[in-house]
Amino acid sequence: MSRPANPVTVPLADYSPQHFLLAVVDGVATVTLNRPERKNPLTFESYRELTDFFRACAFDDAVKAVVVTGAGGNFSSGGDVFEIIGPLVKMGTKGLTAFTRMTGDLVKAMRACPQPIVAAVEGICAGAGAIIAMASDMRLAASGAKVAFLFNKVGLGGCDMGACAILPRIIGQSRASELLYTGRFMTAEEGERWGFFSRIVTPEQVLPQAQLLAKQVAEGPTFGNTMTKRMLAMEWAMSVEEAIEAEAIAQALCMTTADFERAFGAFANKVKPVFRGD
C-alpha cells in the first residue's frame, strides 16, 4: 500500500494522475474513474491518489468546482475484490485499521475540499463507489443507475467511511437503515424520490449536465460557495442558536469580499455580476 508515485505538487490543470483521468476546463475539474473493463473499481493506490487530489484542491484557486464520474457507462463497483479484499483477509488488526482509516480519509478530504463536488452517476455505483457519490455535495443520476452500499454482502457492517453519519442526513434514518442492513440496490427513481439524486437525466446527458451544474457553481462567488459548504458541514453538530450565530459571522466575512461589492454594482447597473473569486 505504497504512496502514489506522482503526488499533487503542480497546478491541477497540469497534473497527470496515475489512477484516474483529470481534465480542468473553465474552472471545473472533472475526475473520471477509468477502469471501465472492471466497472471502475478502486485500489489501494487510487484511494490514496484521490485523497491527495481532493486535498490539493484547497491550494488551487483556478478550480472552482469538481465533477466525479466513471468511464464506460458505470460509476464505480467499489473496492477491487482481488486487489483489495483478497489482501485484506490476510492482514492483522493493525493493517486493517490502517486501511479503513485510509479509506475514510478520502471522505474527509472530499468534505474538507473547499470546492463543491458534483457526482455524475451512471450504471453501477456500489460499495466505495456509492460512498464517493454520497460524499459529494450534489448528485445527478442517469436513468438506469443503481446504488448499493454493499458492505454487509461481504460480511461487514454498513458503518463504512461515514455512511452511518452521512447517508441518514441525505435520505432519512429509516431508508438509510434499509440500504445499509440489506445491501440492496437503490434505483435511480428511488434515489431521486428520496433526495439522494437531484434529478435523473439520460445516460448521454448525465456528465454534460453535471458539468453544466458545476460550471454554474464555478461562476458564482467562490468565497461565498466555500463558506456555504463549510456551514453545511459544521452545522450538523450545532444547535439552531449556534448555527445562526455561526452564519452571522460567516456572512459578515462574505460581505468583506470584492465579489459582494461587484454584485451590488451589477445590480445597480442592471447587469449580471461577474464574480472573480476575491
Name some characteristics of this structure.
alpha/beta; six-stranded mixed sheet; 11 helices; 278 residues; three-stranded mixed sheet; 2 domains
Q: Cα-atom Rg, whole angstroms?
A: 19 Å
CATH level-four homologous superfamily name of the largest domain: 2-enoyl-CoA Hydratase, Chain A, domain 1
What's the helical proportion of residues?
40-55%
Task: Please state roughly what percent of the residues sit in beta strands, choosing from under 5%, 5-15%, 15-25%, 25-35%, 35-45% or over 45%.
Answer: 5-15%
First-to-last CA distance: 40 Å
Structural class: alpha/beta
Low-confidence stretches: none
User: What is the top-level CATH class of the largest domain?
Assistant: Alpha Beta
| Biggest β-sheet: strands ordered side by side in the sheet | 1-2-3-4-6-9
CATH structural fold name of the largest domain = 2-enoyl-CoA Hydratase, Chain A, domain 1
Total number of beta strands: 9
Q: Would you kindly provide a written description of the structure presented here, covering whatever features stand out?
A:
The chain has 278 residues and is α/β, with parallel strands linked by helices. It is built from 11 helices and 9 strands. It has helices at 44-56, 81-88, 93-112, 128-135, 163-171, 173-182, 188-194, 203-218, 222-234, 240-254, 258-268, and strands at residues 21-25, 28-33, 65-70, 117-121, 124-126, 138-142, 146-148, 186-187, 199-201. Helix 1 links the parallel strand 2 (28-33) and strand 3. It is globular.
